[in-house]
Design a protein that fits this description.
With about 100 residues, the chain is mainly alpha-helical. It has four helices and no strands. Helix 2 (about 40-50) packs antiparallel against helix 3 and helix 3 (about 55-75) runs antiparallel to helix 4 (about 80-90).
Amino acid sequence: MFRTTLTLAALGFVLALSPAGAQTAPAAPDTTPLPPTTCSTVELSKMNAETAKITDPDKKAVAMKELTLATDRMAKDDMKGCATHLGNAIRMIPGRG
């Protein structure tokens, strides 16, 4: 009985330390602070050109959506919202985010 209990305890200890039993946390969202972003038609068109060069289709789609939202916010005179969406688009560009 003692031997069985000791064997099960050892097995539980080994399983607890094994990589198969390890839990990995999901990747955290990118919260890297970006340089201050100003919303202007010049900045939006510059970002449009940079977004066109993105090769990853998923990142490109997100960047285009964020640019559309930024343009909508600028049209509604919401410069803070525009800057937020523009910053999100910048994060999708390799080397800038």
